[in-house]
Amino acid sequence: MRFKLPYSLSGLMREQARWRRRIAKAVASPTEAITARAAKPRAGRARLSEISGFGTNPGRLRMLEYVPASAGKDSPLVVVIHGCLQNAEGYAKGSGWTKLANENGIILLFPEQRRENNNNLCFNWFRPSAVARDRGELMSIRQMIEHAGDRHEVDQSRVYVHGLSAGAAMAAALLVTYPEMFAAGQLVAGLPYGVARDAVTALSVMKSGPRQSAEDLADLARRVSPNTINWPSVSIWHGAADRIVTPQNARASLQQWLHLHQLQEAGGRMSRDRGGLVHHWDDGTAKPRVEFRLLDSLDHGLPIKPARRPPSQQQPYMLEAALSAPNEFVRSFVSP
Predict the structure, then answer these.
(1) Is Hydrolase one of the keywords (predicted)?
(2) Which residues, 6+ apart, have CB-to-CB distance to 109 below 8 Å?
């Protein structure tokens, strides 16, 4: 291998410094390397830090996190799961989650898909092996949650999950498979748990909605966690004009979670706000058990408040709307 010789003293010094860093990295112990990567965020990653060594990681995912200065002992943890054609960095920039974390002392965990797992960077919510208990991508995310919870002394009663599209389907799988780990979840433009078994059926459900009855949808979840009595609260958001994941999936998700909570659809409170139709189902507590929002004229994506960003910083599937889904989730479910 040939190397180009620097033609100035400053260039030579930079080359020597570069090689010293490479040698130091090569001889560093695994523990030292993990500590260094965890402590220093990567440049241009919206101050997210990558964490290695969080577990066996059978799903071969990346773990990134954001810990604001306002976080302390017993802070809440929100798991934020991006959609297809997205990554953790872009999602953090476009969604406003880091701003919410700063304002509310929230620790954020960002699982990130690798292209070698899915060429479109989708989480594989439709593969049974990826969403089975203690296997695949689901197990990797569980290990991330446990690792972050231990390191940051998270309040275990205040762990939440938020996801968009395929990320929302993955969030639903987490809520169903590990219900004891979560207080609540927000599913934006997602799909019910268990309605696909491969890519072909996934595409069919995305286009036409699931064929199962409401009771059958609930049974899909009960079979995974048969001893669960107290299911997590859930907030379901969907655009009425979604052309990628039909809103029928949101209605099916609603039926799945109403049955799990043993709530009657007629018992909810319906209203309209700036975004569109809103339904709440309560059980006497301060926070809703099930929330359903169908947003007028919204296509497929995450509804966020308008922000002044140049086109080069705009993220895919981030849609300007009257309401911000992350803001409303924090206000209604995460805040004390």
Answers:
(1) yes
(2) 63, 64, 65, 77, 78, 79, 80, 144, 145, 148
pLDDT per position as a tens digit, 10-49: 443 444 444 444 434 433 333 333 333 443 434 334 489 9
Taking alpha carbons only, the member of 124, 164, 159 closest to residue 144 is 159
CA 106 to chain CA centroid, nearest Å = 14
Among residues 87, 91, 147, the alpha carbon closest in space to that of 114 is found at 87
Q: Is the alpha carbon torsion for 167, 169, 174, 179 positive or negative? A: positive
| 297 among known catalytic residues | no
* Cα(62)–Cα(130) distance, integer angstroms: 15
Neighbours of 28 (CB within 10 A): 13
Give bridge partners of residue 112 from the DSSP assignment. 62
Task: Delimit the CATH 3.40.50.1820 region(s) of the chain.
Answer: 48-334
Domain range 48-334, CATH class: alpha beta
Closest by alpha carbon to 316, among 133, 144, 166, 145?
Answer: 166
Q: Which helix (H) or strand (E) holds 224?
A: helix 214-224
Helix or strand or coil: residue 29?
A: coil
Q: Which residue among the candidates 75, 95, 165, 233 is catalytic per the annotation?
A: 165
Q: pTM, whole model, 2 decimals?
A: 0.85
User: What sign does the CA torsion over 86, 118, 38, 327 have?
Assistant: positive
Nearest to 59 by CA among 3, 125, 121, 138: 138
Could you tell me if 318 and 301 are in contact, meaning their C-beta atoms sit under 8 angstroms apart?
Answer: yes
Q: Where are the beta strands (DSSP E) in 86-197?
A: 107-112, 159-164, 184-188
Sheet arrangement for strand 276-281: 49-51, 62-66, 107-112, 77-81, 159-164, 184-188, 233-239, 290-295, 276-281, 269-272
**Partners of residue 63 on adjacent β-strands:** 51, 111
What six digits make up the tokens of 323? 């309401």
**Quick one: which of 86, 66, 94, 84 has its CA closest to 303?**
94
Q: What is the pLDDT of residues 124-133, one digit of tens each?
A: 999 999 999 9
